Amino acid sequence: MGKKLYHGAAYYPELWNEEVMEQDIRMMKEAGINVARIGEFAWFTMEPEEGRIDLSFFVHVIDKLYQNGIETVMCTPTPTPPIWFTHGHPERMYVDEHGTVMGHGSRQHACTNNRYFRERAAIITEHIAKAVGPLPGVIGWQIDNEFKAHVSECMCETCKGLWHEWLRERYGTVEQLNDAWGTHIWSEYYHTFEQVPQPGPAPFLHNSSLRTMYQLFSFEKIAEFSDEQAAIIRRYSDAPITHNSSVAFHVDNERLFQNLDFASFDTYVQYDNSPAYLINCDLFRNFKRGRDFWIMETSTSWSASLESYAMAHPNGYLRAEAVAAYALGAEAFCYWLWRQQRAGCEQPHGSVISAWGKPTIGYQSVLEVEQARKEIESVILSTTPAQAEVAMTYSDRSKAFLKTEPHRQLNHRGLVTSFYERILSLGIHRDVIPEGAELDGYKLLFTPFIHYLSDEYKKRAQAFVEAGGIWIVGPLSGGRTEQHTIHTDAALGQWLESLAGVETLYTYPMEGTGTQGQAFGVSAPLGLWSALFQPTEAAPVGVTDGGLAPGTAFITERRHGQGRIVMLGSMPVGEEGDVLLKKLIDHYAAEAGVTLRTDVTNGTIVAPRQGEDFTVWFVVNMDGRGGRVTLPRAGVDVLTGAEVQPGVLQMGPYEHRVVRFPN
Q: Does the pTM of the predicted model rise above 0.90?
């Protein structure tokens, strides 16, 4: 990839004739599109009959795009195996948790673990890599498309056999599995690994260990499939490889990106929920540290299928979304899709141009993005996102635990985004980091909604505290073992409670009990599944009033080494809860000496970037209401060249400003 910011779109030339392609390329150049993503659903075009593979059409397309200044991200077409693969072969198909076997059509209908699927996927991937890998227009690769977006854990016979192999490798003996899972419960004891079922149809609920481990098995297998394709591509191409993922899909993104070269994601968040958009930028920036991420798909105006549609973006929003992405570490901002599809199940989806070749309602917004891209490109390329001092840990493995044990249908993404929104609203520059991330450079670490804390994570967090960091644990963290069972040495595990200087007295659902939490000079109702503490070596910071156990601690603090560990045992809820949680975040940010924060108003963000001897603030209004921030010293408006004085900077709806400060 070159030193540029990319502005791109998904393109499906196999659906159109040469005359339409000529029109598309001309209009792409007019709109400022400099990269196209192609091939992801075109397996039939590439291999219309089993074994008859012809990539000449895509070589032609890539060359034609390149001749017109448009580079290509080439995809493998494995989400849509053709009819010759599926017809008459139910054993190759995905089976859901109810035992329903998928038929041909839509996408992700095949089992990606099926041996013959893997063989054919490897063959088509190698042919593509050989044919287009050497072409100068190919600057990157995307493996498949949105792994596990429409399906989750497959229950076919192939997966059953692989499941038993995975268990044997993980546990060694069936006796160790039985002990780990507590299978004397309800006479679930197994005599061989082959007897361990998949979590398919059952009269009530499966053993928690069985259901969670099957999800982790599925996570690992889809990542292995990705690894296989990447290894094939690397034999023929040096271009970097990614996958377009999401925190909404049934994957472990940290594991998935482990053997890929850069991270990318798809997002269709509506304009009125910008925190759900921004959290992706702050997370995917950290899956491949030191490498910019890509937004591989977002809508020019609205997303839609045959059965649903989202609200269209207001004028100005798309530009704000793009500038925020570039400022927060994106190298590319790409749309799904270029030309509206005339057939299929996503005909109503927003696009850059219509099926009949005319600009859509989002086209003007695309032109605005291109203008902004050109204005900010030089400053983005000469800077990097500033090192955050505050981090929040995100875990797809925790998503699996919560899927098994959702309490009252708790949504992991919603919980995490809501917590993140409180940090965002306080003007704190923040990272969202995977479980395996190093903690160097941070002063304050949040670990909410992570049922199981691994030994590796605990070791890093303890070292972080001992070196002077403040670690805030909870709510809903630490209460389960690696096997998704209850601790027997202490409610949250002896290690965590000993380090925190507490004994957990009770864990129970707090809603409806009338419990109020008193902390930081305010009171708020408490909710979610909660833990209440008896401090042993810690100090109580938040205490309950009323409810089932008045006078007990729900927030504690203990000094350890040079830092502190804070336990947050219950979730403050409602408007008062929002106030209390923000006070907690603000208090400990001050205690930790966090300086990389501003007084920016809610709905507007500051994305700080660092140059060789200067700092740049990208200030972007995301909510369409305008906003303001106080500039600490004089600077220069990068877009106009005018001097900017210290004091309040007013922002209009969806406006962005770029201010450069000397170090």
A: yes
